[in-house]
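User: Reviewer 2 asked us to show a designed sequence for the structure in our supplementary figure. I'm pasting the structure tokens here. Could you produce the per-position amino acids so we can include them in the response letter?
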């Protein structure tokens, strides 16, 4: 194969989404993945309407819905007493945004994107570890660990949290939140899995911890996630987030949450990092995408979605600047991408941190938060409109964010703010 039009480094959800978005427009795209096989580690992932809208545009929504679950409600509960704080009616939400809220196994989403890439003719290569990037007179090139070089008109770096390419634009480092996630799936035929209502996505928010559950694979699997702040991380110890800390972190939570802990995988856990927002993602003919550009804390469940949106935005601007003879005005495509995506993702990154702070409150602040959340009207979408509407292609299309409500409005002198409006 001669040089492709585009090299995509990283075959995660972001890289494959971008490869498909560009290949379906007729470009020759090659994906370079460092692992020996394409795959995703982990369990469930939530896809809000700003993502299912794109899957629909790709012709993949029916397949995704068949692989996943379309829940009816998203409910937030207090992890200590188990009481309901607020909810979203996901059928009403689908009517509002035109597309559903979907939960799906990561590996099913990833495999679906991989198959779409294969159908679109993407050249998929594994065991390709990229160690350096450079712009050239004709485009850009990457150097692989074995010393070989690959060239293309444009390189998209979708190489994740520890991105090598990000070093072209910033010397920042991943920021540890000192929080860690445990995950686990369990069959729903009997036991714990059979006790849980799979038509609901539920998050229990508690002091320095939270617990999430929802169904996967047409309801055949229950997905559970337990997240907590590690005291050992806060003390600066290397060995943090271990299973003994998991059990201690949830001691104060209600029976339902504690009974979920034995169902977590205990041989692996995910330490939670993000990075400070980066406002320049393009260096010549090299562009960052996905977690390489904007790794978030996962609290508003938008990390993979932002990555898929990035690819879709690139593909849409490509389509606008693709001449009949196949030439592409790449400087204009990359400039349009740069103009719209960093600001949106900056908002998601900062809102994710604030949302996590809100979830993990204790004492009077927790009680004030609960009072505010209980006051929210069920049809008040003001705090998700900025996320779930159509993905902006131009800066002028980016919707305004919600107005934060000070917790102090509930007679607490705390200065922290709450990510909900009072109804
Ligand atoms: C607990 C948890 C829950 C989450 N829940 C959600 C959710 O519900 N919804 C949501 O949208 N997001 C969620 N996220 C976030 C989401 O998982 C990530 O944002 C998303 O997977 C990032 O995809 P990516 O392709 O950009 O990066 P990655 O998944 O990190 O993929 C990067 C790829 O690049 C490859 N690579 C790395 N370096 C090189 C190299 N030098 N050469 C070649 N290849 C390389 C890697 O092997 C990997 O395959 C969650 C995250 C966590 C931790």
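Assistant: Here is a per-position design you can include in the supplement:
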């Amino acid at each position: 194969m001669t040089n492709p039009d585009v090299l995509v480094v990283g075959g995660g959800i972001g890289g494959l989404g971008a490869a498909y978005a560009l290949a379906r427009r007729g470009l020759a795209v090659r994906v370079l993945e460092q692992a020996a096989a394409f795959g995703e580690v982990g369990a469930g992932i939530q896809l809000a309407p700003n993502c299912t809208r794109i899957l629909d545009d790709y012709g993949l929504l029916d397949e995704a819905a068949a692989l996943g679950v379309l829940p009816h409600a998203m409910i937030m509960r207090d992890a200590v007493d188990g009481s309901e704080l607020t909810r979203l009616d996901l059928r009403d939400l689908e009517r509002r945004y035109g597309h559903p809220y979907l939960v799906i196994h990561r590996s099913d989403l990833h495999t679906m994107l991989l198959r779409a890439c294969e159908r679109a003719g993407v050249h998929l290569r594994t065991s390709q570890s990229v160690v350096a990037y450079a712009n050239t007179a004709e485009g850009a090139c990457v150097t692989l660990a074995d010393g070989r070089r690959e060239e293309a008109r444009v390189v998209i770096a979708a190489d994740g949290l520890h991105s090598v390419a990000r070093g072209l634009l910033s010397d920042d480092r991943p920021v540890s939140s000192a929080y860690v996630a445990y995950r686990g799936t369990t069959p729903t035929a009997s036991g714990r899995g059979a006790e849980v209502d799979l038509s609901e996505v539920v998050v229990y928010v508690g002091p320095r911890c939270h617990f999430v559950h929802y169904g996967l694979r047409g309801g055949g699997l229950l997905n559970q996630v337990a997240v907590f702040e590690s005291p050992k991380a806060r003390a600066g110890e290397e060995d943090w987030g271990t299973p003994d800390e998991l059990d201690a972190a949830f001691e104060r939570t209600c029976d339902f949450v504690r009974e979920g802990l034995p169902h977590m995988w205990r041989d692996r856990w995910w330490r939670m990092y993000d990075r400070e927002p980066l406002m320049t993602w393009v260096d010549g003919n090299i562009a960052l995408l996905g977690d390489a550009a904007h790794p978030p804390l996962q609290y508003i469940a938008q990390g993979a979605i932002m990555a898929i949106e990035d690819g879709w935005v690139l593909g849409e601007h490509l389509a606008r600047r693709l001449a009949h003879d196949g030439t592409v005005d790449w400087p204009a495509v990359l400039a349009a991408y740069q103009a719209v995506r960093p600001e949106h993702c900056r908002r998601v990154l900062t809102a994710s941190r604030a949302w996590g702070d809100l979830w993990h409150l204790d004492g009077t602040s927790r009680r004030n938060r609960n009072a505010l959340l209980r006051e929210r009207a069920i049809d008040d979408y003001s705090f998700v409109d900025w996320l779930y509407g159509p993905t902006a292609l131009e800066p002028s299309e980016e919707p305004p964010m919600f107005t934060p409500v000070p917790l102090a409005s509930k007679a607490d002198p705390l200065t922290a703010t709450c990510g909900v409006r009072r109804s």
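For the response letter, you might also mention the following. The first helix runs from residue 13 to 23. Residues 102 and 160 are 23 Å apart (CA to CA).
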